[in-house]
Design a protein that fits this description.
mainly alpha
């Protein structure tokens, strides 16, 4: 789904999780797609149309954490498309 055209709107799944675009792997994605497109060994137009290109930009849906929370009150903000966010990894392991 193309969500870039919907900037400043909220896009979540049924659990309130959001997708995040990470540009860390943009160069690898470009290399993979160029290799896939320009590789002329056993490729024809029917093969190209049936395959999907790899996309490293968007994560799966991620939970949103809040810095202000308690048992009876708190603050929750759902990031909108185009907002900048901070991502933390469990035990600092991206995998």
């Amino acid at each position: 789904k193309d969500i870039e055209s919907e900037r400043n709107t909220i896009y979540t799944d049924e659990h309130g999780r959001v997708k995040v675009r990470i540009n860390l792997y943009a160069n690898q994605e470009e290399l993979d797609n160029n290799t896939f497109i320009t590789n002329d060994i056993d490729t024809n137009s029917s093969n190209l149309s049936s395959n999907t290109y790899k996309s490293y930009h968007h994560t799966p849906f991620l939970r949103v954490a809040s810095s202000i929370a308690s048992n009876h009150s708190g603050f929750f903000h759902t990031p909108r498309i185009g907002d900048e966010v901070i991502i933390s990894f469990l035990d600092d392991d991206i995998d």
